[in-house]
């Protein structure tokens, strides 16, 4: 079981992880975090769970994980200074770097919120804004696959999913990973709030789509084009095959290819 005191030991973050709660089982850490986000004093609070009974991913998908197989956590921001697109890409950078720091420097970002190792998804991020009482609260839900074996994943997602252990033939240390994750999120949020361009530049280095063809579904319609960049307010920028440049925001877009 993840121990909050062990995660907090020597944690040198400024904002994230001052208070950490670990649930044995809950519906979704994002649900628990949303309750805490009503109180502004809970900024930076982190909820971990060993098991979720109704874990969710983007676009209405389920997020499944065996007990204690993953990092399942949600970070409460009660007042986010970053707009949705910049926050989304900053979180992706923070999670990709966390996984890179475990010695797997090839962790990459598949916009908007998938973290990839060797071409397979190892982590996902679900941002849920909670605009309440005039402030911009947001829940950053993060799932990192740690101990799963190939057959831990459903047959449908097996070809595209992996875990840290499966890629390294070793057993990952979830406490260390949790510490690194909170440190990375803390540092990247601070960096992006001071200078968004730094987070964007790092995103560019870690993106698997920049410079490549992308097909996506935006509000139910399909678009294909060459990915030429990311805009901190409008989202992914495509030079469309059909001509013209168009931007796509993360909240309404699903990547098809
Ligand atoms: C995705 O890739 O679709 C996003 C997955 C996000 C999963 C995490 S696990 C912790 C938190 N609680 C949830 O219910 N979802 C997020």
Structural account:
This protein is an alpha+beta fold. It folds into 2 domains: 4-206, BirA Bifunctional Protein, domain 2 (2-Layer Sandwich), CATH 3.30.930.10; 213-255, Roll (SH3 type barrels), CATH 2.30.30. It has helices at residues 4-8, 29-36, 84-100, 164-168, 174-194, 196-206; strands at residues 20-23, 46-49, 70-77, 108-110, 114-117, 120-132, 135-145, 213-218, 221-231, 235-240, 245-248, 253-255. It is globular and about 55 Å long. The protein starts with a helix and ends with a strand. Biotin (BTN) binds next to helix 2, strand 3, strand 6 and strand 7.
Give a short summary of the structure:
The chain is built from six helices and twelve strands. Helices cover 26% and strands 30% of the residues. The model has no long low-confidence stretch (mean pLDDT 94).
